[in-house]
Model the fold of this input.
Amino acid sequence: DAYQYAGMNPVKYVDPDGNEIDVSDLNDGQKREVLKAFLYISQSKRGKELVDNISKPVKDGGMMFKIKMNKKARVEYDTKTQTIHWDSTSDLEVFDTEREGKKGKQSPALGLAHELGHADQHCKGRGSELIKSLTNEEIKYKVENDNLYDTEIPIAEQLNNKHNRNEGIRREYRDVVRYFNAKGVKSNEEK
Done:
């Protein structure tokens, strides 16, 4: 069980092997939002893999990072500080190729999964070999699209197919229409 290592609460405790999710800047309500998002994305194979990586010791490929909450529709992974900045109420409306080019909406939890994917990329050193041959913008676009296909798309497809969710699926990083305020961390309905 991915949560057994931390007394069933991975957003409050440090595991005994030293891997840590630093949530010291979060209040109890924000910690619950992170846990809800982890439980939601864990319903997919790739999401479960990401959450399971959190329970591994860093020496065995586990991740160590910090989560900070904000209300600015700022969702990103900062490689320098190993910090995920996440807004649990804001996510994306995207051009959804699964719906014949129509727009689709993503939950805030899928946004967190996307950033966990970047933390996983960083932990595994993927993308660093591109720095020698590409410009910064090209690197960002390549790393973002790799993350879409490694993390965001598989999680969204599995949640949609196995759990009757309605996550929007974008095939290109730039396929963003706008940010919106969601009803909840697992919802892709607007407030």
In short: The helical segments are 28-41, 45-54, 108-124, 136-163. The chain has four helices and seven strands.
